[in-house]
Amino acid sequence: MNAGYEYALELGPxxxxxxxxxxxxxxxxxxxxAEWAQRIAAGQVVLDGAPASAEDLLSPGQRLVxxxxxWVEPEVPEDVHVLFDDGDxxxxxxxxxxxxxxxxxxxxxxxxxxxxxxxxxxxxLHRLGRWTSGVVLFARSRESRADLGRQWAALEIVKRYRALxxxxxxxxxxxxxxPIGPVxxxxxxxxxxxxxxxxxxxxxVVVLERRSGSFLCDVRIATGxxxxxxxxxxxxxxxxxGDPLFLAGGGVAADSRAVPGDPGYxxxxxxxxxxxxxxxxxxxxxxxxxxxxxTTRLVPA
Length: 301
Prior knowledge:
alpha+beta; ten-stranded mixed β-sheet; four-stranded antiparallel β-sheet; globular
């Protein structure tokens, strides 16, 4: 059981003269109209510091708060290991199954919560999907956060992933440049996938080992679009083994009930390179892949 949470929002023009129940049902479709009505009746929804009623007409500028009571979160692994810490930046090894940030029913069972037990000031500089393991970098100061943000915007930070993909590509090295952007999803409204209208994205794939019906590969990316490695390998016709969401071609099925946080795929953030803010020195942080993503033969460096 966690401690509960207060979700706060300052209302914008879209809330003008709309009844509270209608507004929260429209804006937060993760819950039904009946569920929101029950929360309002229980005094969990507050307007400008006072318990609200379902019929209250809203005005722009009001402060809306949903005081969510404590709830039981799913169990998650918390075996997080420090890989690098120079006082400005902190890198940790995230286990598969642990969400990086709060969301989808997780609040305290997250990497952010685990890291802040020992470094309360730590701010994540990027995120990994729940079932992706490996290196996650945190800033421990405002200056380091700004500096790494500039490096990311300039595509100077390079990430290497280890993945197990399906099929057998014709080349041992290839580039994928499929744009990535939001596409329709029956449960979430939209989800990121390969899309001609998406943002430019580039991945460099190197095959390390061919297996029966699959291959082990390293994928280097400079752009960091959501789910980029999963989408790009699928776009190349080689979805990750066990990926429940992305189909060959990089899209999702029109009737898909899978969401990005579902398990099954095999992906590890194996390496992250950046310039250390305090002296400009290049730092490369590596994480050992899990056994199913290790090569079974020697591979040249």
